[in-house]
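Attaching the record inline, Q. Sequence:
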Amino acid sequence: MSSKRAVIIGAGPAGITAAYELVQRTDVKPILVEKAEVIGGLARTLDYKGNKLDIGPHRFFSKSDRVMDWWLSMMPLAGGGEVEISYHNQKRNISAGGAGSMPAEQGADRSASNVLMTLSRQTRIYYLRKFFDYPISLKLATFTNLGLVRTVKIGFSYLKSVAFPVKPEVNLEQFITNRFGRELYLTFFKDYTEKVWGISCAKISAAWGAQRIKGLSITKAVWHALKKILGSVSDLRQKGTETSLVEQFLYPREGTGSMWQLAAEKAIAGGGEVLLNKEVVKIFTEGNQIKAVEVRDQVSGEVTRLQGDYFFSSMPVRELIAKLDADVPPDAREIAEGLVYRDFIAVGLLVKKLKVKDEKGGLIADNWIYVQENDVLIGRLQIYNNWGPSMVRDVENTVWLGLEYFCNETDELWGWPDEKLKELGAQELDKIGIIDKADVLDAMVVRMPKTYPGYFGTYDRFEELRKYIDTFENLFLVGRNGMHKYNNQDHSMLTAMVAVDNIAGGIKSKDNIWDVNTEMEYHEEKKS
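Structure, as predicted:
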């Protein structure tokens, strides 16, 4: 066994993936250091009296075959079956406990519940107390709900944006307007996006649109609708489909967090270590190397020092720089201190039923709903009954909802008592006609700081900061907050995988890690 060690700060998808990859592909021992008392980071699943709640919706879908392969090797598909894998120009079929899985006896007691289900995705916008498809579809119901005048204005506005696009695209408002027209931007994008970020879209970098919306446009949405009519949208991988248009995805039966719990257990079985309730308070450097981290136990207050040969960080970049025991250049420190984050509150609400119904009078099929109404604070609503029967204790007689609020830790809302937040959630859903407040049975609250890295503040100078951080040869930034990059969990996994590739291959440059999710297709899809 090698004496080399990798200290991994943060046990979210990126950190856990890094640990698993290290034990599978190298002789480097990973030590995961997690500040919280549970693993999973933003991808954890909370259990409240048998009702499970994720920190935001997590679809297990990726255009990366490598990530799909990883998930399917970790968990079998429910009911058996196979999914064709195409990776590095080699096609093969993979099913239960496939490539890369640990011996069957490890974790066998939970094997029945550790499976991936295939879910159909329905996501809609709630606006004007009506439902609209997301992305907006060109259906009669859409035009009826919008009304003739608004529909005509949207049409002409889109044609204008095609003929006279704003150049150069500097901010998010210009990015969206160029692809959808100003009227559609004002109708369906502006209010919701500003709920998420708390500032004007004109002050958010266009890079956010390039990161999250990518190639989505009205043209793409129309073409996707035509393919549906022709019956050509069936492959689970949906590689030619923009992410916002994907209609099927995998999901662990016991919630997102069960995938990461299982992966962490396998990393431990392979020789790794997980330290919970441990906060990294100082990072020691020597020249261009990280040498050790000082860790404080959150319960006892005891401080210990962990030495390592490699270091992975998924902690917020602002905190990383503040904890470096190094002569950080003033410009780099200024940029780090100016990075902005958006925080998140989830209110779990258990209700008897919803007031809104599907066409047959039953539960609507939405996985989540974007609440565009500007007279309430709620931004997004999850319906966990539609994420699988294991997510709700009494799935036949109750509806388990996740109400999502976006704020800053400095906002008054963040400091509200839990009971006041529960009351707010019930009142707002009653106000917009989703539930009757009298039908609320129970509620819970969870706060998650630094959920979204902001594309404003000093973000426009981030490249300068990145160049400084990359001078530390054995430090790898991975994950959403680790890179201050609005990644999904598959992108976060890929950053960790590529970092381990570099360690295994002796590659010094970090460019390939930063390149993950910067183009329309992920890099490993580029076949020669």
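Confidence is low (pLDDT under 50) at residues 84-110, 222-226, 237-245, 520-528. The first strand starts at residue 5 and ends at 9.

More tomorrow.
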